[in-house]
Structure formats: structure tokens, C-alpha cells
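A further point concerns the way the authors explain their paired sequence and structure data. An entry of this sort, consisting of the sequence and the corresponding C-alpha cells, reads as follows:
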Amino acid sequence: MDSSQNSSSAAATGNGPINQSKEVEDPKQNLTHVINSIQKTLGLLHQLHLTVSSFSVASQLPLLQRMNALVSELDTMQKLGENCDIQVPMEVVNLIDDGKNPDEFTKDVINSCIARNQITKGKTDAFKGLRKHLLEELEQTFPDEVEAYREIRATSAAESKRLAQSQSILPNGDVKVKTEH
């Protein structure tokens, strides 16, 4: 069997290189291919470790075959990785280099977001309290103007809500994104 037949039969079985003319553009599927290649590489490394740890002259051919399979899979992984655009923060890489769990980075980021969210919520609540207090004070001094303000505010809120619904804008100003199935 020549090399062109070998690569076409390997691609047909799903064990060989991906056909470059029909690259998959779905990022999730690209990532799945990379993950599968990583798992296959880990399996090959385990097999290679077992072969090396119990090496004898008779196991030289299986050792060479496993090494070739590992090199081939690493090449495949590298090619598949070119189709994936994943940004990994340097902090995660540094944690891995230090032998620590990268989940610590995620935990720290989430805790930081929670702390900032609580600070922002506190500020928002403080402004709401100030607004309520100012309206109470203004209502005692200028009751007619405050009533007119509340009517204008209610009209404006209703108009904003109607406009948001017609433009698929959420109340917080975000735009609804329609997913295509």
C-alpha cells in the first residue's frame, strides 16, 4: 500500500491526519479533536512507560512501534492545535510550572469577582438610599415638582421599556443574541 492510500484509509477510519480541504471550523469540535488527541497521547505514553520499565531485547520492536506512534500522535496534536484559538492566562501556566493546581487561578478570579461585585452592590445601594432620601426631602419642600418629576420618570421608563422590547435590548442595556440552531 503506498502512502497516498495509507493516508486516505487512515483519514477514513478517523485515526489519521485531518483532510486539510475539509477543515472543521467549529471551535468546539476543534477543541474536542485536540482533547481526544491529548488523551490518546497520554495512553501512548503510559504504554511506552510500561514497555520501557520491563524492557528486554524481545520488546525492542514494540518499543520502537510505540515511540513512532507517539511521535505521530504528537504531530497530529500539533496540527490539530493550530485550528484552536485558546487564550491561556500566564498565571495558569506559571501555576502549572510551579506544580500547583490551575483550578486555584479560577477560584481566585471568582473570589475577586465576588468581592468586586459586593463593593459595587454596596455603592449602588448607597446611591439608591441617597436618591430616596433626596426625593423625600424634595417632596416635603417641593411636592408639585416632585410629582411632575415622578410622572416624567414613569413616562420615560415606559418608553424605554417599549423601545427595548422592539429592539431586543435587555433592561440592563445588553442586546439579546439569537442563537442559530
